[in-house]
Amino acid sequence: MKKNFSLYGLPEEVKFCKSCVISNQRPDSVVEFKNIDNKKIGINFDKEECEACKYAKIKEKIDWEKRENELTKILSKYKKKNGYDCVVPGSGGKDSAFTAHILKYKYGMNPLTVTWAPHLYTQIGWENFSNWMHKGGLDNILFTPNGKLHRLLTKLAFENYLHPFQPFIIGQRIIGPKIAQKFNIPLVIYGENQAEYGNRIDENYNPLMNIKFFSKEEKDQISFGGVNVNHIIKNYNFNLSDFEPYLPLEKESIQSIKVFYLGYFLKWDPQECYYYASKNTGFKSNTERTEGSYSKYSSIDDKIDPFHYYTTYIKFGLGRASYDAAQEIRNGKITREEGKILVKKYDSEFPKKYFEDFLEYISIDEEKFKSIVDSFRSPHLWSKDQSNNWILKKSL
User: Fold this and answer.
1) In a domain, 287, yes or no
2) Hey, which of 65, 160, 240, 273 has its CA 20 to 30 A from 170?
3) What is the per-residue pLDDT across 11-44, written as a single tens digit (0 to 9) for each?
4) What's the CA gap between 143 and 345, in Å, rounded?
């Protein structure tokens, strides 16, 4: 076996975008992460530029007034005199706070917001969530899944995929359509399309989310953290009904629900969402920067969130500062040179603040944590120096 072979189907040659700070190691998020997979999953580069940067330039040429007119026409079809006319999934962070508030107070909709609870709320996260309702003037359903099961699924995902956020992402994405189905609301509206950050560029040209994600598979084919649901039921004393919040909808049910991205119709800028949410829903940034980055206002509601980004740094050589800097470069907030400095300073920082909480949450000790993490370092990205410390082979 070659010494520098790559895991997860990532490109063996590391290349960085000439316009931002992201590399071709960033996976296309539509691809389900596997332990070792020969399928190539790195994002596309064209003439040394990532597709997110290419689309950022395209956004500058879009007729946003025309797009907004399309939005008002669509919303008018779903607007009701009484009751909820759309569902807005979110945590009360800057993006979902912006989405729900502007839909209600600018476009006259009556959204029902729905939140898949974080693993462990931070203090600032709980305050922002509460302000979303009390200062933003919105209705909300806070859904908290079975804690025993969610901890187990998080543990399995960490051990098998080094992806502790996998169960959360599944629940977060599916809770909106599930609530829409239960309340007979035919419209679900998310904020930005994640394709803006580097998925295939053609995904940005469709205002609708692909509903295949929500359609039900055969139950015996579903797995969490790489473990089949039947195996979990048999070996961990759960039953199928415990998995209900995570299971996709029947195909017949989802066909009647439309899932839109607001970012298709309104020019999306995370920093502008922050300003809007601060003014209109009482959203507050943290009092200190987030470990692994320089930001104080992105993804600050969950104590487990820093370990999601730390694990992406281990698997792909891209930490939280890389993701934050890349989108701010595209939006003209910082230069590429400034982004490179921030990445070098913060990307490799270990998230110490909630480390003990994370270990307790998934019931492992520090030694096992380090052993699992190191087993996911791809040889084409990582090597050890003379002091036996891990170092990235190629960085900005």
Assistant:
1) no
2) 273
3) 999 999 999 999 999 987 544 444 334 455 677 8
4) 37
